[in-house]
Amino acid sequence: MNAIAFTDVTKRYGDVLAVDGLDLEIPAGATVALLGPNGAGKSTSLNMLLGLLRPSSGEIRVFGEAPETAVANGEIGAMLQEGALIPELTVAETVDFVRRLYPRPLPLEEILRLADLTELARRRADRLSGGQTQRVRFALAVAGGPRLLLLDEPTAAMDVESRRTFWDNMRAYAAGGRTILFATHYLEEADENADRVVVIARGRVVADGSAAEIKAGVAGQAVSFLLGDQPVAGLDALPGTTGVELQGGRVTLRTTDLDATVAALYRKTTLDIRDLQVHGADLEDAFLALTKEA
Amino acid sequence: MRHYIKVEMLRMLRNKRYIIFVVAFPVGFYLLYSNLWGAESDQATGLRGSVLLMVSMAAYGALAAAMMSTAVPWSQERHSGWLRQLQITPLPGRAIILTKLASSMLLVLPSLLLVGLAAVLTQHVSLPPLQWVELILAMWAGTIPFAALGLAIGSLLPPDTAQPVAMIGMFGLALLGGLWFPESMMPAAMKSIAHVTPSYDYARVGWQIAAGEAPHAADAAGILAWGVALVALALVAYRRATVRA
């Protein structure tokens, strides 16, 4: 059964098309990263999943139901980008209040443990640091024991150490067969924490698969060398070449067949080639290539 | 929802501003004024100063509590993202505004009861039991328009504007209602404004009950009309503030 299904979903704000015919299915139990640059439509898509925004057209289903119904039934928990706490309430009071709003909440102690808040339980919200507040917001997202957890750039305000702990906690929660969808523009986060990466740009899915598949699917590798003042014309015609970029005096050729491209460089051109380097594609390259083309 | 009300009460009782304006001010001023004028009797109502001031200060405290517990906290919750946090839980949208109204009504009680208690203990004010019940119930129910006004302000304005507007509204209504000095001392223009405010009707109903009279129909109708109008405004403003785009 699908936890999430977008069918040809469009969201328009006046003249701006934030989400443009989005089709996406996520089976229950998966951990999926929604990767894209700022303004790609990630937050808009998550807000529509929560019923906070309505699509201009198309249909969204969460466990086969309308988003509002799924929210009312306590199926979804979410950590949105913004969200202050009530300053006068303690961590435990806040978490306990929210968990009681759900029909099948987790026990308070378990929530506090999942979010590393056991020691901060009695602290008032106005005395928490930014990173501690983020942990409370994670606690609020999981408090109801939701089957679907949505996280919108959850580690944005965290340092490296907090980030690692956060993802460990997220995995612990996911381990119970729950579905997780998180938006991020950090490639490593998507690579390390998701089984599947959905890349979106300008409101559309531009790639969808495991991190490895996405890397493999784009441009493969690249070779670069110092070109200096020599002409760049004709390089795009070399075998295997899919793209040519010139930056400073250095030219980069993207290629699907590294050997053929390099061989042709030496045999079929008269260029003076210096400082030749070969680059394997990483997810960053794949991401840039994908979001640029879109 | 019961737990939600509890949480709302808890946070306001920890809020220093609430405690100062709503609990300390009315009780403190009652003690001060009743020592000065408690023994005199008021010509317009025929009430002893200690009783008149009890109603005035209780009315001020109740009005302040109703507006302080609604306008700014609610506006802040909308802007800080707390409202969104609640909107993505199974809590139905209407439960939020109903809880706000109910909590505000409960938070009015400390100032009503404490001013009454101060009057009994320091000025030996005594009323027949039924009259006490009537007075407290009328003054309690009469805060609905002010709580609704506070919620409307909180729904319509961002926190930095809601704050001064709520303050000015609160003190303005207290002043015009004749809670701080008698309406008979006001200049003519101010008097005519005062007569159409809900706080004026509210205070008059209180004084009438304290004097052993039935509330005058005109005053009761005035506060009822304000109540209906402001609750309607609060509901419309709430819908507008929480609408899903």
From TrEMBL, chain A:
Q: Name one GO cellular component term.
A: plasma membrane
Q: Does the keyword Mitochondrion apply?
A: no
Reply yes or no: does the keyword ATP-binding apply.
yes
**Broad class of the protein's primary localization:** membrane
Q: Tell me the membrane topology, using the record's own terms.
A: Peripheral membrane protein
Q: Read off the PROSITE patterns from this record.
A: ABC_TRANSPORTER_2 (PS50893)
| SMART domains recorded | AAA
State the Gene Ontology terms under molecular function: ATP binding; ATP hydrolysis activity
A Gene Ontology biological process noted in the UniProt record is: response to antibiotic
For this protein, the record's Gene3D superfamilies field holds: P-loop containing nucleotide triphosphate hydrolases (3.40.50.300)
- Domain ABC transporter: residue ranges: 4-227
Compartment annotation = Cell membrane
Q: Which UniProt keywords apply?
A: Antibiotic resistance, ATP-binding, Nucleotide-binding, Transport
In terms of Pfam families, this protein maps to: ABC_tran
The record's listing under PANTHER family reads:
ABC TRANSPORTER ATP-BINDING PROTEIN
Protein name according to UniProt: ABC transporter ATP-binding protein
TrEMBL record, chain B:
Q: Name one GO molecular function term.
A: ABC-type transporter activity
What is this protein's record name? ABC transporter
According to its UniProt entry, the protein's GO biological process terms are:
response to antibiotic
- Kindly list the GO CC terms recorded for this protein: ATP-binding cassette (ABC) transporter complex
Q: Which UniProt keywords apply?
A: Antibiotic resistance, Membrane, Transmembrane, Transmembrane helix
The transmembrane residues are 18-39, 51-74, 95-120, 132-153, 165-182, 220-238
Topology versus the membrane = Multi-pass membrane protein
Question: The ABC-2 type transporter transmembrane domain covers which part of the protein?
Answer: 50-235
InterPro entries (UniProt xref): ABC2_TM, ABC_2_transport, Nod_factor_ABC_transporter
Q: Where in the cell is it found?
A: Membrane
The species this protein belongs to is Microbispora bryophytorum
Q: Which domain of life is it from?
A: Bacteria
